[in-house]
Specification:
The protein is an alpha/beta fold. It is built from 35 helices and 26 strands. It has a seven-stranded mixed sheet with strand order 3-2-1-4-5-6-26, with helices on both faces. The chain has a seven-stranded mixed sheet with strand order 12-20-19-18-13-14-17, with helices on both faces. The protein has a three-stranded antiparallel sheet with strand order 7-8-9, sandwiched between helices. Helix 24 (about 605-625) packs across helix 25 (about 635-645). The longest helix is centred in the C-terminal third of the chain and has 24 residues, at about 605-625. It is globular, with a radius of gyration of 27 Å. Mean pLDDT is about 95; it is low at about 420-430.
Amino acid sequence: MSRALEDIVVLDCTSEYWSALAAALLGDFGAEVIRVEDLSRPPRDPDRDGCHPHAPINAEAELIQRNKRSVGLDLGAEAGRSVMARLVAGSDVFITDLPFGLLAARGCEPEDLARVKADLIYARGSGFGPVGPDRDLPALDELAAARTGVMPTLPEPGEPPVYTASGQMYTAVFLALGVMLALHHRHRTGEGQVVDASLFGGNLYAASLTVDAYLAMRDDRLSEPVSRLDAGNPMSGASLAYPTADGRWVTLTMPDSDRWWPAFSEAVGLDRDDPRFDTHDKRCGESRLEMMHLLDEIFARRPGSYWREVFAEKQLSADVMEKYDYPAEDEQAALNDFVLGLDHPSYGRFQSLGFPLHLSDSPARLHRLAPCVGQHTAEVLQEIAGYTYSEIEDLRAEATVGERRAEVPEPPPPLSAAPAASGVAAGSPTADGSAPKALEGIRVLDLTVWFQGPVCAQHLADFGAEVIHVERPETGDQARGVRSINAVPVADWNQYFLVVNRNKKSIAIDLKTDAGRQIMYRLVEESDVFLWNQGGTAALRKLGLDYQTLSSINPRLIFATNSGYGHRGSDRPAFDMTVQALTGIMTRLSEPGQPPVYLGLGAGDAYGGLLSALGIAIALHQRQKTGRGQYLDASLYGAQLFLAAPSLQPYLATRNDFYTDQRPRRGARNPLWNRYPAKDSWLFLCLENTDANWSLLCGVLGRDDLATDPRFSTVEQRANQDGSLVDLLDEAFAARHAREWTSTLRSSGIAVAPIESFREVSGDEQAWANGYFAKAHCDEVNREVELRGIPLTLSRTPGRVETLGPELGQDTEMVLLETLGCSWDEIGDLKARGAIP
C-alpha cells in the first residue's frame, strides 16, 4: 500500500508535546519528517509539571517523535542557521512552536523562510494566536485551559477546578489539518502560506457545545459545577454516575428515557408501571431525586462486570467507567491498532498508542521508533540539503552539528511587538470575503446527525467546501430538536444545530424510497466526499449506501465514516460519554474519593469530528496523486483513546499506576506547577521546580521565610512534600485577588493565569482578535448573534462563517436543479413518489 504523504518533506522545529505530535501525525501517513534538535537549547523536561515521572522508557517520545529522523543543529550560531536554510529549501513544510521573539532572533519568521522557499507551508503552533494583546504569553496548555471557562465546571461543587490536559490534543490535530489544507491550496495554485493553530483556540474548540451555549444563552448556570445527583435526568447527564459494589462507576446516556425505560427498568429490577417513574416527565421531575437515590442503592449491590453484562444483554446506552488497564488489554483497541505492541532495542517489549484514523488504501504505519538526538544528521544533510561527506565532517568539527543538547537554558528571548488585530482577524465572518478558500471545488455529502459527523463537515465547510447536509424529511437531523444544554433551556435560537451546521446547504431526501436512493446515487457521481455516522455497515448496506456500491458509482469518492468502536470488530451504537468511560481518563481526574469527571459536553465527539476532517484532507491529497478515492474511518473510541494520550501513553509504556489513580492537589509532585485558590477565584501557576524559581516565587509572594525553610530548601524536598507546602501556598495566594496575583507574577516572569468562568471568557479580547469567537446573522431570530469561530488561521485561505445552519430541506430544489440538472417536471415527479417533500 502507498503512503499518502510520501511526497512531502516536513521540517519539525518544535519543542512542545502538542506541536511535535502534529508533525508525528503527518509522519504516520508517510511524510518524511526531519526533527531538528536545537543543540543550543536544552530539551523540554516531560516531568516539569511533576505529572510525568521519569522512567527507563521515554514513553512520550515514542509517541510524539515516532516516524521521524533527527538532525542535531546549533541554531544559536550563524553557521547552524545557514544549514537550517538549506534544509528549508529542500522541504515542503516547516513546523515550529518557538516563541515569536525567538523566531525573530533566529531569522525564522515566515518572511525570512519565504525568501528561501517561496511555496513553503509555514505552520506555527502558538499559545494564544498570531495577533492580540496576549500573543506572547507562554505557550502552555494549562494557561490556555484556564482561560476557557471549562475547568470550574468539571468537578463536584466545592472541589478544585479540574485540568484534563486534553486541550493540547485538539491543537495538535488542528495544526496537522492546517498543513493539509495549505498543501491542498498549494497543489492548485503553487502558493505557500502561514498556518497558526493555538492552544487557546484548541481548548476553546474542545468545549464547543458549552461555549456555544453560553454565548447564546448568557446563563451563568453553565459556568457552575453540577453535582452528580443534580443531573436533570436520572438516566442521562454529563455529571451523572452511580457507584457499583467493586468501587467502579456506572454511566448512563439515555436522554430519551421513554424509549429506553422498558428495557432499563427490567435491567435494574424496577417495575415498568411504577406510578412514580412511568413517564419521562415524572422521572425528570417530581420523582427525579427519589429515582436517583434508588438507583444508587441498586447499582451498589453488584460489581461493575455484572452491570456491563446486563447493559449489553438489554442493548442499553450505558457502561462502566474503567481505568487505563482496560484499553491496555482490550481486544477491540488492539484489533483496530488504537493500541500497539512494540519492541524496542533498549527497552524491550512495550505498548504505545497507535493510530486513531484508518485509511483503507494508505493506512497509518509505524516505520521508525523515536530517534536519538542527531541520529540521522549526516544522511539527512546529504539527502535534503545536498552536503558532501567532507562538509558534514567540517560542520561536526565546528560543533555546528552533533548529538548532545545544551544543559543550561539560554536567556529568555526578547518579546517582539505583538501585532493587534488589524480590523478583524482572519477567520471572522466579517473578514475580507474575496480571499480564496482552501477547499473550493470540493463537494461533501453530509449524511450525519448530532455532533461528531456534523462538526467534521463544518470544518470542511468553514474552509470552502460545498457541504450538502442530507436530512430525512419532516424531522431532519435530531440536533434540530435540542431544547436544553446541561439541563439549561436553549436560547431563542438553537445554537447546537445552527452553529455546527453553519456554511452548509440542506436537502431532504427519503432514502428508504427507490427514487430517493437514485437521487443519492446521482449526487454521489458529482461529489468528492461521502460522510456518514448513522449506524454501522449493516445500516449502510440496508440503504444501498455501502462503500462497495458508492465507490463503483464514483471511484474518486472519499467514503468517510464515524464508527463507534473502529472499522473492525464491534458495530454497536456509541455515545460520547459511554465510550469515554472505557478509555480510563474519567476515573483519574478528580480528587481522591470523588466521582469520575467527564471531559465536557461532546468533547470526544468534537475530537472525533476533527480527526475525521484531517483524514479526509489526507485522502484528498492521496487522490491528487492516484485519482482514486478510498474508505476512511474515525471512530469515537479511537479518538477518545488518543485524546487521553498525555497520561494514557506513559501508562501503556510503563504500567505505572501513578497515571491511573486519582491524585490530590495537595500531593502535587511539583507544588510550583499547581492550582491555587486566590481571594476571589483560582489561579494556575506554572513554574518548574528549581531552586532559582522557588526563591523567585517566595520573593514575589513576600514570603522570603519560605525560601530558607529547611523543609522545602531542595528540589527533592519540595517534590516530596506531604501537602504542607501546598497548604502554605494556599494561605499566601488567598491574600489577594486572582487578577492582582496574575499581574504581579507575570511582571516577574512567572507563568500564571486566572482560572476563568464563561462570563469572563465570552468577552476575551484575545479570542475575539483571533476569530475564535465570531458574529453572524441568525434568520431564526433576525439579529446578529455570537458564536464559536474558527480556531485555525490560514494567511491566504482563511476560514469564514458566512451563514448559520439552514432550514430543513431549504436547498433541495436548488441542488436538484443546479447540481443534477433536473427539470421542474422531474422534481414534481420526485415529490409525487415521496422521494422529497
